[in-house]
Amino acid sequence: xxxxxxxxxxxxxxxxxxxxxxxxxxxxxxxxxxxxxxxxxxxxxxxxxxxxxxxxxxxxxxxxxxxxxxxxxxxxxxxxxxxxxxxxxxxxxxxxxxxxxxxxxxxxxxxxxxxxxxxxxxxxxxxxxxxxxxxxxxxxxxxxxxxxxxxxxxxxxxxxxxxxxxxxxxxxxxxxxxxxxxxxxxxxxxxxxxxxxxxxxxxxxxxxxxxxxxxxxxxxxxxxxxx
Length: 227
Hints:
Elements (H helix, E strand, L loop, with lengths): L3 E7 L2 E7 L2 E6 L6 H5 L3 E2 L2 E2 L3 E7 L6 E16 L5 E18 L3 E4 L16 E10 L3 E10 L2 E3 L4 E3 L2 E11 L11 E7 L26 E7 L3
Antiparallel strand pairs: 1-2, 3-6, 4-5, 7-8, 8-9, 8-10, 10-11, 11-14, 12-13, 14-15, 15-16
């Protein structure tokens, strides 16, 4: 179990306090001994005789997180005599276990959940990418499909829909100016070219920022100058 330890000293008193999820800075209006401190009463979670000057809120590591999964990837290249090289590639990530042990809540199965009500992170069970490409010595075209499976929103007891986006890229590589350098390459492309909105979540912003990108359709230009 991970706990933070707060220690302060006053002229006749040294004390320490173990706490979780909250940092406190106090001013002691009295001095005394350890027995006097032990007689301080807690009122509604606040130490009543003390003046609270500042409260720092942060998230603490819980006792344990156990997770495992499987990554799968395969690809194939098809070379032609005159029409360039065709290629496809598939990448899959399957989470099999996401078990949390929270000191306040207990054991939690966080697989396939947003995990808003605990210290975990959003954990869709399946993610996958598909790439299709065509290349010659000068030209390259790449198409990408990116999929995130649906998962549960434990804050609102609702399902967060699956999400699929498509990217496209074209690259042209100029002939090198010398035998010891590569040619200049220019790439243009689009991300999420079908302008898919992230799945709706009833929270601030209306989407899960830990998983989805709200920016919609993006275009870019990239120039690589070899040295």
